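[Meeting: bench + compute handoff]

Bench side (C.D.) handed over the final construct sequence. Compute side (W.E.) agreed to return the predicted structure before the next meeting so the bench team could plan truncations. Sequence as handed over:
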Amino acid sequence: MQTSQSWREARQTIRNQMKAKRLALTTQQQTSAALDIIPQALALIEHYQASHLAFYLPFKAEISPLPLIKQLLTQGKSIYLPVLHPFSAGNLLFVQYQPNSVLQSHSFGMLQPQLDIRQVKPLDELEMIFTPLLACDKQLNRLGYGGGFYDRTLAQTSAINVGLAYDCQLIEQLPTEDWDMPLDHLILGDTA
């Protein structure tokens, strides 16, 4: 039986390995994988007849949902991006995104839309949330950066939780914690 300390260390080791794997991908591999996820995601969105979809802006070589977002906007889907909650530390709000939306860096260095309370979509009105991750496993567990932002958010919604990742981020089994929110679906982009 592992101690909680060794469990945390195992999770951190996986995080570090996956960051390195992502950064080692060529620009061509990243672009190809971002395009590879589009048909899978479109089929899933169609299956659920979803119109209000939350995504993320790619950070540090995360698989990019931007080509998918562009296509969904042409289909008239409503797209929302995460914003750090200004009054509730560790939580996210989702703001409607348009191609002309003003983006700004937040305290962690990631881009987010400028917060306009009129553009915030209540969590219970989102139908699907496409989440970033560092690692995932065959049991649909995800491992993020360790801040818990998505786990806290996903615990408050019944939206379909879809992980997006490169195929090289899939491992056999992740060490999980009680608060980890599993994925409903996982879409992997091919990096071969």
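W.E. noted at the follow-up: The two ends are 36 Å apart (CA to CA). C.D. will use this when planning the next construct.
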